[in-house]
Amino acid sequence: MSASRPRTLFDKIWDSHVVERLPDGTCILYIDRHLVHEVTSPQAFEGLRMAGRPVRRPDCTLAVADHNIPTVGSRIPSDIKEEDSRIQVETLEKNVKEFGIPYIPILDVRQGIVHIIGPELGISLPGTTLVCGDSHTSTHGALGALAFGIGTSEVEHVLATQTLLQNPAKNMRIDVTGTLGFGCSAKDIVLAIIGKITTAGGTGHVIEYTGDAIRALDMAGRMTVSNMSIEAGARAGLIAPDQTTFDYVKGREFAPKGEAFEQAVAYWKTLPTDPGAHFDTLVSISTADIAPMVTWGTTPGAVIPVTGVVPNPDDEPDEGKRTQLRRMVEYMAVTPGQRMTDLAVDVVFIGSCTNGRIEDIRAAAAVAKGRKVAAGVQALVVPGSGLVKRQAEQEGLDRILLEAGFEWRDPCCSMCLGMNPDKLTPGQRCASTSNRNFEGRQGPNGRTHLVSPAMAAAAAVTGRFADVRQLV
Amino acid sequence: MDKFTTLTAVAAPMPMQNIDTDKIIPARFLKTIKRSGLGVHLFDPLRFGPDGKEKPDFILNQEPYRKAQVIIAHENFGCGSSREHAPWALLDFGIRCIIAPDFADIFYNNSFKNGILPVRLPRAVCDQLIEDSKLGGNARVTVDLERQVVVRPNGEEIHFEIDPFRKHSLLNGLDDIGQTLQHAPSIDTYETKTRQSQPWMPSTAA
What we know:
The complex is a heterodimer of chains A (472) and B (206). With 472 residues, chain A is of the alpha/beta class. Chain A has helices at 9-15, 42-51, 83-99, 114-120, 152-161, 186-197, 212-215, 219-227, 243-249, 258-268, 319-332, 352-355, 358-368, 386-394, 397-404, 453-462, and strands at residues 18-21, 27-30, 33-36, 61-64, 103-104, 129-132, 146-149, 163-166, 170-177, 205-210, 236-238, 281-286, 293-295, 303-305, 347-350, 378-381, 407-408, 429-432, 447-450. With 206 residues, chain B is α/β, with parallel strands linked by helices. In chain B, 32% of the residues lie in helices and 15% in strands. In chain B, the strands form two sheets. In chain B, strands 1-6-7-8 form a four-stranded antiparallel beta sheet. Chain B has a four-stranded parallel beta sheet with strand order 2-3-4-5. In chain B, strand 3 (70-73), helix 3 (85-93) and strand 4 form a beta-alpha-beta unit. The longest helix of chain B has 14 residues, at 184-197. The model of chain B has no long low-confidence stretch (mean pLDDT 96). Classes of the chains: A alpha/beta (472), B alpha/beta (206). Chains A and B meet through helix 2, helix 3, helix 5, helix 10 and helix 11 of A and helix 4, helix 7 and helix 8 of B.
């Protein structure tokens, strides 16, 4: 491979991490950062134990429990009421001790959702490879890291070898141009993208997000976009590191300091895609086509502007798709032609690795301020980490939200997937800032509509989906 | 990991797109520290009603598909989560092969690690195989990995692509970790080189 060939950001990170290219083209790819949580790791540690293998690089690994943790009451692991949840958390604590892996305990203020705390603590860095047994690892691509989710067998593989067997992905560029409209956020950008390219549009690709609308986003917004790359079917998302990235990383606990930081920045500045580099697939989207978005169905691609109406499955020419659309209409208990703003909600969930950062809580509080949660609506705010929670409390956001009738919880993945007690009951309709609206995702027979934090807060105070632009 | 060589079995038709990992195995069943025993929860929301009783119209609740070892589906099978519990549940139920037009990347990877062969074939071919599979126990499909063919009940052979490394591992039931560790000297060299070129890279151990 010629060094002078123009390369994409993905190509550069990939090339610099190939340990060895096997005869058939499969690469042994070095992994710089491995984040571990309690749900997808127990069987990996058990595999190591059975084979008598140590963890190769505990100093490149960080563990935290985030999926099973209660958001109210005692957070001491032995107090977790659901036995299976407690065993998973206790198993992680036992494994990190046995294998000597750095661990952030639940009672540590830095505990939180793995994809919130990686960037927040400066573990996730530009130009690195980062993996975790969790599909939303794509989040960390916002910093210009090649970050992707892996299964438990691969978790074990990384623990044992600090590498993965991988084949290169295709390059996709999604260019988002223009100025984001009033009341719109990064969540609306990524929902609009998935609506356009579909949930399989990114399969086999790593997506690099470019364009002035992406450049203008703060790091939290970039993380929201990159987070949902997996919902477009992509292996990972990437955003080229720039001054916004460097300013974000500087001074974080695990980030390089002083001279080392300057050296790192000099390297990071070489990473952005070269002019003329080849992309296999090009997509462009204008902010003029992005409004506050709401999903109406049970895939993230089933998304429309809040001003829109539920589509009619009969208009779909493909039989398979038509069948799926009919199933979605039935499951979601909506009717073709129905306006989204006529749909009442039972629950509002603000949190998750998609939208659990301080900027998201500020956006929700701005809408909630001086208003009340509508009668009969339960509204949860679950900060993504202990540090996010502390920051929000220092800013008085918890008071604003509590006075409006929201519940102010402790950090966890929570109602994004309901592995802790926070879940929907059958038939409940939820405006959620999370990432998946699959059937049963937030609880058996629950109905999930994905929205931005501001739109979720708007739904909470009006009791139905509402155009947030009329509230701010 | 069990080898995969050839399989002749009943195939269950599931002509749906986007069969996501929450359908294959909902999050509430991920609270296990074992790989085994998840088959009883496979496709829980499709297979069982709110009362826990089997839904008679679901294909895997019908004979002869209760013993199916192959699933034939539509696009984007396995989309969503990275949970390896999805292939664990499929395997525990007895599924060794899934045929679909395409798969979500992580699920595709995870399948190979567990001795499950995901086969990509064009939609029209999948639809043909779905029609075949509706004939039930009288219409077994054969999947021959060595020759890279799916054999229809009428004897017609359909070629499929698979990358050679994965094929080799699956045919021989090889463990990836063992194979990678044979390259440990290369990993050592890589680490020495990057320690020099990126001295600023911090440790995760505070």
